[in-house]
Amino acid sequence: MQAMVLDLPGRPLRLADLPRPRPGPGEVLLGVEACAVCRTDLHVVDGELLYPTLPLVPGHEIVGRIIEQGPQARRFEIGARVGVPWLGWTCGVCQFCRTGAENLCIEARFTGYTRQGGYAELTVADERFCFTLPDTYDAVHAAPLLCAGLIGHRAYRQATEHPFGGEARRLGLYGFGAAAHLLTQVAVADGRRVLAFTRAGDSAAQAHARGLGAEWAGSSDDLPAEPLDAAIIFAPVGALVHTALRAVRPGGVVVCAGIHMSDIPTFPYRDLWQERVLRSVANLTREDGERFLARAAQVPLRVDATAYPLPSANEALAAVRQGTIRGAAVLTPNS
Fold it and tell me: Taking the model in full, what pTM does it have?
């Protein structure tokens, strides 16, 4: 099979011919139809996430069809279309797994990081961590749901479900990429008012946000005219933590949604005071996945995606790095 391979962090991916992978117990072999390109892939490729399995096939927003089952794999039929997310395996027995917090499992393995991923024609996945996908999305438009959507929705729940001092009606989104363009639509469907904060001068991203229902879009340097009830930071920029804390009301919530972020500068305690909440989101649970995909079938979401052939993975990564993609970049290995 053909795959894009990372040999060492900091190097471009190389196109390689690899042996056909074989599914082990409880695993399935997928013919990959699409794999979205996530900012987390950049953190892996650039060496900001340490200790990847090398050589590595990146990619963790995978849509594929089952073409072979390993021993004891019986959850899906041959030919079933499934989605594979970032969380690829957990131990099932630690305190986190036993209490519904499998996203914090200390033995967890991650697709496209410590398990081989989807920048390939074929990939192997643990069938327990595969999702049935809504029929309303083709492969290219389903792939971004599997991280931009799933992790974004977990952050959205953390920001809005348990606010202090009233409902979270005014929601700020810092960084308007693949995740924010999906979550804007969910929030608007829920009757929330969305404000989108982008890099200064990024008029294209701001227009994109307004086109998806944001009531305001502007620079992340700006403070909103009215305090926010909650904010989600998708951009991997630590300085935005202080910016967002200053933008939320007393009792407001700021959620850091990325798996990697630059260091957070010091800031005065008064900007955290009055029971403002600052928290991170790590990975996802299978319950998160089922809830979001059910919601995506109901809304439904407009998924903006630009398709790239598999050999153009480095070009797609560069476009994500430069912020020139509106929505998501998606690799199509078998097109």
Answer: 0.94
Same domain membership, residue 295 and residue 268: no
CATH number, domain of 316, equals 3.90.180.10
Domain residues for 38? 2-146+283-332
216 and 131 share one domain: no
For the record, the structure tokens of 27 come out as 């695993």
Which helix (DSSP H) or strand (DSSP E) does residue 40 occupy?
helix 39-45
Query: What is the longest distance spanned by two Cα atoms in the chain?
Result: 59
Please calculate the CA angle 265-277-207 and round it to the nearest 5 degrees.
Answer: 75
Per residue in 18-62, pLDDT (tens digit) is 999 999 999 999 999 999 999 999 999 999 999 999 999 999 999
**In angstroms, rounded to a whole number, what is the distance separating the alpha carbons of residues 212 and 196?**
11
Tell whether the torsion through CA atoms of 67, 71, 73 and 77 is positive or negative. positive
Provide the domain count of the chain: 2
Rounded-to-integer distance, Cα 173 and Cα 257, Å: 10
- Residue 237 is part of a domain; what is its CATH number? 3.40.50.720
Extract the tokens encoding 323.
């912020």
End-to-end CA distance of the chain: 14
